[in-house]
Amino acid sequence: MSDAADPATGTDEHGFATRAIHAGQDPDPRTGAVNVPIFASSTFAQDGVGQMREGYEYARTANPTRTALEACLASLEGGRHGRAFASGMAATDTALRSMLRPGDHLVIPDDAYGGTFRLIDKVFSQWGVDHTPVSVNDVDAVRAAIEPRTKVVWVETPTNPLLNIADIEALAQVAHDAGTRLVVDNTFASPYLQQPLALGADVVLHSTTKYLGGHSDVVGGALVTDDPALDEAFAFLQNGAGAVPGPFDAYLTMRGAKTLALRMEQHSTNAEAIVDALQGHPAISHVLYPGLTEHPGHQVAARQMRRFGGMISVRLAGGRDAALAFCDRTEIFTLAESLGGIESLIEHPAAMTHASTAGSALEVPDDLVRLSVGIETTADLVADVEQALS
Ligand SMILES: *Cc1c(COP(=O)(O)O)cnc(C)c1O
Question: Which residues cross the membrane (predicted)?
Fold first, then answer.
């Protein structure tokens, strides 16, 4: 593989923001361009048969822009190996197919991301892979759900959309004691707020569409691990099945990641101000935010997260109709799926992102509204939420 994969100016001695800007992203050796070029090339000239210049041959296997992104993502998660994919679901599919075979079983959160649940429930079940949904905030429940055939414990933390907190360190212990592996979907926290590998996780997954890209302009996914055999399996399917991001997508994701530290600070600050305004509001029956001391996962979140992030869910005292009206009335918060961008978004999970969970164990309450708090002016966001509820 290319020397470009060596994060020379973003080594582990450097701080997070430095690595976000420099890891894998040395100035272009030929021109000095400070940004990694968008290598819009599907193939690479060979100096003789099988003699590649920098290890590049065909862009499904590797592309220098993608290599730079992969080195950056690995560095941000404190991991040795990073792989970038065309979407978070492509990364999820690759992780599952690398780690599970027919007859195997996995444990998943009972409020998993709807797309993750759909893939496991509708596709993997057809190939003889079984799953058990549990509350991943309950370590004993996870331990009890592990069977001899369990190969993977899959968690999100905070979970989407209920913002439950899984204790990564405790679950890594439980998984390893049982001879299984722990995968953490770190999309909601981002590597700035939480680094699961350091807490014992075997694999970290991202939908880079969300906070890492951060500008709602690109879809992507990533897998990071310290385990060379797992990374090899991921690389095999990345090339073998081909769900790769193009070089422009890799560039956009890398460009977004450069400001991740600043953005996550502001997302967290804005979310805290909105949580303050929503707490005790007569229209709201529950505020779900791990930064609240009364949140059942607060202690664990405070231990494993730098701050509490930009996602808030609320339940409306007036039920489903009040939830739909809240979604309709915001002016700065845009009614849309997705999350993690600079702009604030609002959505109704039961009818939108989590519609696929209807009638299942993962069904979400219909009085629930999810806010992805952006980085607009704090007071404007608070005023928007207040007017929408009045
Ligand atoms: C969006 C999301 C995914 C899926 O990622 P895509 O990029 O949309 O394919 C997976 N997990 C979580 C927690 C997500 O929010």
Answer: none
The CATH number of the structural domain formed by 261-389 is 3.90.1150.10
| Residue 52 CB coordination number (10 Å) | 15
Distance CA 261, CA 5 (A): 22
Range(s) for CATH 3.40.640.10 in the chain? 16-257
Q: Which amino acid is at 43?
A: T
Q: Which ranges of 219-278 does DSSP label H, i.e. alpha helix?
A: 228-241, 247-257, 260-278
Q: Kindly report the protein residue whose alpha carbon is nearest to atom 6 of ligand 1.
A: 88
pLDDT at 114: 85
Instruction: Please tell me the distance from the alpha carbon of residue 268 to that of residue 365, in angstroms, as a whole number.
Output: 25
Does residue 122 carry a catalytic annotation?
no
Q: What CATH number does domain 16-257 carry, 3.40.640.10, 2.40.50.140, 3.40.718.10, 3.30.70.2740?
A: 3.40.640.10
* Percentage of the residues of the chain whose pLDDT score is greater than 90: 91
pTM of the model: 0.95
